[in-house]
Specification:
The chain is of the alpha/beta class. Helix content is about 20%, strand content about 25%.
């Protein structure tokens, strides 16, 4: 059998963009990146204040909802998931904040080697291009733009003044030594526009001859032979076809779509 690619990545979201970047660094690796949604050239994606309008946009999101919750008067809750390059990083609120240290330590203590806070901190630092903090908690040379949010509503200023008057601690860096307190978030916004995973990891390397990006392409099924995944059945421009893979098929469709 003649294989078209060495790697196929299903989903060009936050993880898929990073995987495509790293795997295609080796010119001997032929990489196909499949995305169900379109390119991210919709104005509301780039405009930070347009974020909330994307949560129920069926062209750029999956528009999932939870099952009706008995304790919420049987309401279903909106569960946004991005459907464009950059995935949910192209429709989210752009806040950059790490998890709590104790959560990572608990994962590692339960047998998940490499998921401890100190191990992951190396990755956090390597990814960051932080514009406001230069210390051992942050990186300043990575592909992911991070800056402290400068715009502020009057209500936000009133809220922070109230926190100060109440005696709460002002925290200038929620990703630093501790997360307790009040202050301004750090965000993925550059020059007044959203900076997604696609902006940081995918767009700068789309010129690589060994990387192919297919948008508006739905993955229908993983094709197996002798218990090994060898291809993906896709639907693209109304046509159904199978694209084969020599080495690995990587499901990177997110917490809902990958299991699906």
């Amino acid at each position: 059998m003649k294989f078209r690619h060495k790697y196929i990545i299903v989903g060009a979201g936050s993880a898929g963009c990073v995987l495509a970047n790293k795997l295609s660094e080796n010119p001997l690796n032929s990489v196909l990146l499949i995305e169900a949604g379109p390119m991210d050239n919709y104005p509301s994606i780039k405009m930070p204040l347009g974020a909330s309008s994307l949560f129920k946009n069926k062209k750029y999101g999956w528009c999932y909802e939870t099952e009706p919750e008995p304790n919420l008067n049987h309401r279903a809750i909106n569960w946004p998931r991005g459907k464009t390059i950059g995935g949910s990083s192209s429709i989210n609120g752009m806040v950059y904040i790490r998890g709590q240290e104790e959560d990572y330590q608990k994962w590692e203590s339960e047998g998940n080697r490499g998921w401890g806070y100190q191990e992951l901190m190396k990755d956090f630092i390597s990814l960051e291009n932080n514009q406001n903090h230069a210390d051992h908690h942050h990186g300043n040379c990575g592909p992911l733009w991070v800056e402290t949010y400068q715009g502020s509503l009057e209500a936000s200023k009133v809220f922070m003044n109230a926190c100060h008057e109440y005696g709460l601690k002002n925290n200038l860096d929620f990703n630093g030594q501790e997360q307790e307190g009040y202050g301004r978030y750090q965000v993925h916004i550059k020059d007044g526009q959203r900076f997604s995973a696609a902006d940081g990891f995918l767009k700068p390397i789309l010129h690589r001859p060994n990387l192919e990006l297919m948008t508006n392409t739905t993955a229908i099924k993983i094709i197996t032979s002798n218990k090994k995944a060898i291809g993906v059945k896709i639907k693209h421009k109304g046509r159904v076809e199978v694209i084969t893979c020599e080495s690995e098929i990587i499901l990177s469709g997110g917490a809902i779509n990958s299991p699906q």
